[in-house]
């Protein structure tokens, strides 16, 4: 069976920078608290009406296509990961296709929050491995700032999230030992309510009303400590699952790119794997948690910094709402 490999990556970061000090003016928080608990120094917020979810996805996609030496017309299929689509439906893959000028090809949205990009990559990989498509565009894009409670009540979540987009072009290869070696996808819906946005949701008629808005049920809720505890267990577990499936050990890894959830989670993962700090990528200080966009943005920056070379063994790993957790082992 043929394999799939990443031949281009790209990112789009909104222009507006929001520092921790700016958040201090909106809610009862402090730069010191945010840095110490999360490692975040600043994040970017998309501009209303201009930097939309699908538009940012398209900018990241164009950058990824440039690196791949391709044009949008070379793409056979789109897999689009986001928790913050511009509409309840359709998903953002459809409007992004219009920005890229390629109507007609399939566009599938993936709803797996922080794990979205790894799920999307796994789906794209399967489409290529089975021979259905040759070139698949995988996108992760988020506009979080329009959905946050920016008062003191919402501070635990509001300080964490940021906006941005990242993309990868996946193409078919006959090289057996290169590309995506394996993907490992998990979920446990028992914990859905520990990290969720309840409204709008079809369980009530109508899907959202004034009471829901007044009660703050339209904002993300996160049981922070509970999520933290599960994340520090599931990240190493799913990375070891990928290593074991391919007969590798942690010391064989050239780079781990974890979803950028919290610097303390990343440090705990590094300690559990017993690998040097330089082998675990981090850029959360600049962007916060950009959910489905965090991994493709991180891959792009790791490549820019020369941390990923031909033949590098790279593990992507994520944990988030669902709960969901996933990994992907890649020989570059
Ligand atoms: N500024 C100042 N104080 C705050 C803030 C804030 N922004 N947020 C909470 N606090 C206060 C709390 O009210 C609490 O005060 P109290 O002791 O008087 O009650 C105190 O700080 C400690 O709060 P904790 O929630 O216990 O703080 P913790 O050390 O757990 O850090 C955090 C909170 C950063 C949210 C942490 O729990 C975390 O990182 N959790 C995991 C996040 C994550 O990985 N999410 C997954 C991805 S998200 C996705 O999938 C969509």
Automatic annotation (TrEMBL):
Q: Which NCBIfam families match?
A: fabH (TIGR00747), PRK09352.1 (NF006829)
Q: What is its main location?
A: cytoplasm
Coiled-coil segments, which residues?
none
InterPro entries named among the record's database cross-references: ACP_syn_III_C, ACP_syn_III_N, FabH, Thiolase-like
Partners and quaternary state? Homodimer.
The gene from which this protein is expressed is fabH
- Stored HAMAP family: FabH (MF_01815)
Per the UniProt entry, what is one GO biological process? secondary metabolite biosynthetic process
Write down the chemical reaction(s) this protein catalyses: malonyl-[ACP] + acetyl-CoA + H(+) = 3-oxobutanoyl-[ACP] + CO2 + CoA
What range does the record give for the signal peptide?
A: none
Return the GO cellular component terms, semicolon-separated: cytoplasm
Q: In which pathway does it act?
A: Lipid metabolism; fatty acid biosynthesis
Name-wise, this protein is Beta-ketoacyl-[acyl-carrier-protein] synthase III
Q: Please give the residue ranges the record annotates as the region ACP-binding.
A: 260-264
Q: Key word Lipid biosynthesis present in the record? A: yes
Q: Which organism is it from?
A: Caldithrix abyssi
